[in-house]
Structure formats: structure tokens, C-alpha cells
Write a structure and sequence with these properties.
The chain is of the alpha+beta class. Helix 6 runs parallel beside helix 10. 36% of the residues are buried. The structure holds histidyl-adenosine monophosphate.
């Protein structure tokens, strides 16, 4: 039996990859305008990094990590997300000493052992961005403005931005106690999972998808009604700045996020086009994270976009693969040898040139030129070799013009303009 890919891990094939390249190129363009630089971190980290940052009682750490021992018995984990690795790299490389404000972006595969379904995979890709060093609410709005701009640039508008504030270590503990007491009274109506973790991670009950939990928590106390004065002020300013930048948003007081490092502003970009997997991007503030990982006490905020979900929304035929500029068709062995050299010269001049290597008939070669969606075709036979001239055929309108083979690269560059 032939070997297949691992469940929940997908190949990205020619024909689809153009959409991926489009999304990546646009991210580089947009994030560059907002002053972000790319950072690349390894796909594998020490397990402890994720336990300490994402949180021991989260779904990711409890059940979804690809953790294994290497040959020296170190516990390693395939990164389930990008924020913790970027913070680890930031601290380790002392990036704070270079600049008090770091704006970083990344793109690449992440791994979570989740139950695969449409929009949810075990290897998936994120495009993410992080700002470290700014506490002011203006940066929250700026990060959301960048996300908004990116979605405008890639042509996806069927998304809505939901924001919330999760408070801080000052105000959250009291709220948490209040929520535990509230859940305690309704324990029988909660699902087994929420019953199990209502003491350790009560906030998760608020975004549990089980209907019984939704009903039982419909009038649960909300964090935004229990913010301390500083968090309330911060959240108020984030909203004001978003309005000033004309970024549409709605408040979702039940949004809790599945990672423990968040404080204050949290957000999700949601769509109704993807069924259950409705978040296409998500993020928030993580002011204590850098310090908790052994770095300086610096605030941070960022987001990650799920690339597979963008591709599902756009469709893979939204960006067509680019065909060759020129297909060189040859009649006979001598012409084929000449076509081979000519093709090579054209490729070296930056022209996308292609030919048939298998001595096929002219008809078959022209069929292939069509299939590859070549813009032009050139037929080389005995006469053309003798005269050093050939007819260049425009495949779109079948018009022809004579070209000199020796100066074809220059001629072609001129024609393209
Ligand atoms: P997250 O909400 O876990 O946050 O993931 C962000 C996005 O990644 C999700 O909204 C979704 O689009 C995509 N995603 C997550 N899991 C899967 C999956 N199994 N299959 C396909 N797509 C998935 C984070 O990862 C945070 N690090 C975001 C962040 C950055 N917060 C601050 N900075």
C-alpha cells in the first residue's frame, strides 16, 4: 500500500499554492507599511515554553500538543502557535536592547492534535504579528487597523471584528471568583468538560459551544462589567481610537480565548461562511507574558490569522497560476536542439520559457502550449533555422509577427511592455 500524508495534514499543490503566495505577499506588503519586520523561529521548541505561556489548563496544553522526547530525552513540542516562540526568541536575542518597541511578523506551520474537519487541521498555517513594548491603547487600535487593512487588501469583507477586554491581574481574580460562584449554582446544567474545569478555568464555560452551557450561562457576569478603573479606561480608549480610524467592531463580552496569556484587549475576526470554525483571525494583549518567560516587564499585543481559513473563503481558483511567457515548439531533432538552447537563453534573461522534450508532433506541442496557458508560441523548423527568423504567435488572438531568433530575448522584453 502506498504511503499517505498524516490525517489532518495537507499538501498544498500547484494551482492552490498561488493563492497561498498571494496571501503571503500581501501580508508582507501590508505589514511592511505598518513598520513590521519578519522573524522566523524553529518549528520545535522545549515543551516547557508552551506550558508556561499558553497555560497548563488550556485545551492546547492539556490535549492538543505534539510532544515527544528526542534521543537525549528532552521533551520537545511542535509549536502549536507562534506567540510563545516569538517571545522566547525576543528575550533570548535581547531584541529589547536594540529597540524599545519591536514590531514582528511571522508565517508558517503550527501543529495541534485536534479533530480534523473543514477549516480545522492538525498542521495549519498562521500569519501572525506581535508588537512588544507599547502599553498605550493606540497600539491596540493600530494592530487592529493593520488586520483590517490586510483583509481589505486580500478582498475578504465577510468578516466582523469582535472585541472584548479580559481585565488584568488586578481585576480578573475577583471576577473569576464571582464567575465560579455563578457556575457552582448551575453545575448540573453544564457539560462534563465545563464541570471538570469550572474551578481551574471558569471563563471557558462562557464560550462553550454546548447548548446547555450556553443557556446556563446566558446571564453570567461579564468581565467588561468588572474591569478595574485602569482597564476600563484602556478599553474605552481602544474603542475611541477604533472609531477614529473607522474600523467597524462589535463588543463580544463572552469572548474568552483559549490561551491563558491574554489580558485586557482580546479580539476575533469571525465569519459565518465557515461553519463551526468561524474565527479567521484572533489575538489580544499579553502584558505579563515576556516577564513570565524570564524577560523584562514589557507589554505585548498581537494576532494570528488562519491561512487555511482564508484560502477556504477565497477559493483556490481566485488566483490563476502564471503560465509561460513563451512556448518554443520544434519540428525535428535539429530544431529541437536549437529550441533547447534558445529556451535556456530566454530563461536566463528572465523570460518564462518552456518547450517539449519528448519529440512530440507539432499538434501535440501546440496543445501543450495551450494547456500551460503560454502567452506566446514560436515554431522552429528547418526554414526558421536557415533564415534565423520565426513567427511569434500571440496565443490569445492568434496574431503573428516575425522575430529574429538571435535577438529574441531583447525583442521579447520589448514586446512585453
Ligand atoms: P488562536 O486563536 O489559537 O490564537 O489561533 C489563531 C487563528 O489560527 C484562529 O483564529 C484560526 O484562524 C487559526 N487556527 C487555530 N487552530 C487551527 C486549526 N487547528 N486549524 C486551522 N486553523 C486554526 C493564537 O494562536 C495566538 N497565538 C494568536 C495571537 C498572536 N495572540 C497574540 N498574538
Amino acid at each position: 500500500m502506498s504511503i499517505t500524508a498524516i490525517k489532518g495534514m495537507n499538501d498544498i499543490l500547484p494551482g492552490e499554492v498561488e493563492t497561498w503566495q498571494f496571501l503571503e505577499t500581501k501580508a508582507r506588503e501590508v505589514f511592511g507599511c505598518f513598520g513590521f519586520s519578519e522573524i522566523r523561529t524553529p518549528a520545535v521548541e522545549k515543551t516547557e515554553l508552551f506550558c508556561r505561556s499558553i497555560g497548563e489548563t488550556t485545551d492546547i496544553v492539556e490535549k492538543e500538543m505534539y510532544t515527544f522526547a528526542d534521543k537525549s530525552d528532552n521533551s520537545l513540542t511542535l509549536r502549536p502557535e507562534g506567540t510563545a516562540p516569538v517571545m522566547r526568541a525576543y528575550i533570548q536575542n535581547k531584541l529589547h536592547a536594540l529597540d524599545p518597541v519591536s514590531k514582528l511578523y511571522y508565517m508558517g506551520p503550527m501543529f495541534r492534535y485536534e479533530r480534523p474537519q473543514k477549516g480545522r487541521y492538525r498542521q495549519f498555517h498562521q500569519i501572525g504579528a506581535e508588537v512588544i513594548g507599547v502599553e498605550e491603547p493606540k497600539i491596540d487600535a493600530q494592530v487592529l487597523a493593520m488586520l483590517h487593512r490586510y483583509f481589505c487588501q486580500i478582498g475578504i469583507d465577510a468578516v466582523s471584528l469582535q472585541v472584548n477586554s479580559l481585565g488584568c491581574p488586578e481585576c480578573r481574580p475577583a471576577y473569576r471568583q464571582q464567575l465560579i460562584a455563578y457556575l457552582d449554582e448551575r453545575l448540573a446544567s453544564l457539560c462534563a468538560e465545563c464541570q471538570r474545569r469550572y474551578q481551574t478555568n471558569p471563563l471557558r464555560a462562557l464560550d462553550c459551544k454546548v447548548e446547555g452551557c450556553r443557556q446556563a450561562t446566558s446571564d453570567a457576569p461579564a468581565m467588561i462589567d468588572h474591569l478595574c478603573a485602569a482597564c476600563d479606561e484602556h478599553f474605552g480608549q481602544v474603542k475611541t481610537h477604533l472609531q477614529a480610524l473607522q474600523i467597524p467592531f462589535e463588543i463580544n463580552a463572552r469572548m474568552v480565548r483559549g490561551l491563558d496569556y491574554y489580558v485586557r484587549t482580546t479580539f476575533e475576526l469571525v465569519t459565518d461562511q465557515l461553519g463551526a470554525q468561524n474565527a479567521v483571525a484572533a489575538g489580544g494583549r499579553y502584558d505579563g507574558l515576556v516577564e513570565s518567560l524570564g524577560g523584562p516587564a514589557l507589554p505585548g499585543i498581537g494576532f494570528a490569522i488562519g491561512v487555511e481559513r482564508l484560502v477556504l473563503m477565497l477559493g483556490t481558483d481566485s488566483v490563476s497560476p502564471q503560465g509561460p511567457d513563451l512556448f518554443v515548439a520544434a519540428l525535428g531533432d535539429a530544431a529541437s536542439d536549437q529550441a533547447f538552447v534558445l529556451m535556456s537563453q530566454l530563461q536566463n534573461s528572465g523570460i518564462r520559457a518552456e518547450m517539449d522534450y519528448q519529440g512530440k508532433s507539432l499538434k501535440a506541442q501546440m496543445r501543450r502550449a495551450n494547456k500551460l496557458r503560454a502567452r506566446f508560441a514560436l515554431i522552429l523548423g528547418e526554414d526558421e533555422l536557415q533564415s534565423g527568423r520565426a513567427q511569434l504567435k500571440n496565443m490569445a488572438d492568434s496574431s503573428q509577427q516575425e522575430v529574429v531568433l538571435e535577438t529574441l530575448a531583447a525583442e521579447f522584453a520589448r514586446l512585453q511592455i
